[in-house]
Amino acid sequence: MGAPETIPTETLTAFSFKREMLAVLPSLRAFAVSLARRHDRADDLVQETVMKAWGKQESFQPGTSMRAWLFTILRNEFYSQMRRKGRELPDPDGVFAGNLATHPEQYGKLDLADFKSALDSLPDDQREAIVLIGASGFSYEEAAEIAGVAVGTIKSRVNRARVKLQEILTIEGESDYGPDETSRPLVNKAFPGR
């Protein structure tokens, strides 16, 4: 019976790096979709981010946030691509416009479509900030680091985005969430106590 085989430190480090990176991919893709606004472009953006991260893994500082590091790479790659193109065509194939013209069967789908439209109408810096804080769950400090701005700037952008979303969606209070006046009796009948 021989001694157990020792695994080289480099192999363990590469395995740990890969495992951490894979755990971040779903939220990384969601962030990419919010920036690129098209799933195919978002997938390309995530793939490019993973390739760059893998190639530069020696620059990752163990003990720091893999998530923040990857989000920063993705964000930088997105804006680099935008600068190269010179301008953005948000819906060249008419996919988004086609989805807006389709009437969903449920109120939730309509509300989601309204929200997506409102989110898309925000300035890029505000949309990015509210997605980082509200959807991706980053702290203000992490979001500021990813965006390369001061914490106060991120807080201001998030606040302005929230106010603008409320204005666009005509939200005045908690009663504006959930079923509308027409649907409320049906929901209350199906789910007593709500």
Automatic annotation (TrEMBL):
**Which intervals hold domain RNA polymerase sigma-70 region?**
24-87
What keyword terms does UniProt attach to this protein?
A: DNA-binding, Sigma factor, Transcription, Transcription regulation
Positions of the UniProt region annotated as Disordered: 175-194
Q: Which Pfam families match?
A: Sigma70_r2 (PF04542), Sigma70_r4_2 (PF08281)
**GO biological process annotation, one example:** DNA-templated transcription initiation
* Keyword flag Hydrolase: no
Q: Can you tell which superkingdom this protein's organism belongs to?
A: Bacteria
Q: Which residues form the RNA polymerase sigma factor 70 region 4 type domain?
A: 115-165
Q: Example GO molecular function term?
A: sigma factor activity
Stated family = Belongs to the sigma-70 factor family. ECF subfamily.
User: Entry's NCBIfam families?
Assistant: PRK12516.1, PRK12547.1, sigma70-ECF
How is this protein named in the record? RNA polymerase sigma factor
What is the originating organism of this protein? Answer: Hoeflea halophila
